[in-house]
Amino acid sequence: MSESIKGIRLTSGDEVIGKYDSETHTIKDPIQIMPTPDGRIAMIPWCFYGDIDNGIQINPSTIIYEVKPTTEMINAYRERTSGLVVASESPVGVVGSIGAD
After folding, report:
1. Could you write out the DSSP letters of every residue in 24-60?
2. Number of Cβ within a 10 Å radius of residue 25
3. DSSP category for residue 88
4. pLDDT in tens, 52-77
5. pLDDT digits over 1-50, tens only?
6. Burial of 21 (0-12, 13-18, 19+ CB in 10 A)
């Protein structure tokens, strides 16, 4: 299994970051990345309505590209999915999830 944190862009326009296995095309703990009007980035749950504990298999024909995220994005992703804050010299400016308290 070649699972690592990747960013993927789909033909739907969704940009998602998560633990992606490029062999099985499965993504675990997926978070959708969306730009905000003030130039920051919002990270919101992707497919929050389903039971995705074992990941989501993505049809490879819907993937435009996959990319290794920057260190700042990986740290923001880890903070968002684990609750642990990773110290950073240059904050990404992540807004958080829509509808959060």
Report:
1. TTEEEEEEEEEE-TTS-EEEEESSTTS--TT-EE--G
2. 18
3. -
4. 788 899 999 999 999 999 999 999 99
5. 567 999 999 999 999 999 999 899 999 999 999 989 998 889 988 877 77
6. middle
Alpha-carbon 53 to chain mean position: 15
The closest alpha carbon to 62, from 9, 4, 20, 19, belongs to 9
Residue 36's Cβ-side half-sphere holds a number of Cα atoms within 13 Å equal to 14
As a whole number of angstroms, the distance between CA 76 and CA 83 comes to: 10
Query: Quick check: 43 and 82 in contact, CB under 8 A?
Result: no
pTM, two decimals, is 0.74
User: And the tokens for 27?
Assistant: 């993504």
Provide the CATH topology of domain 3-82. Answer: SH3 type barrels. (2.30.30)
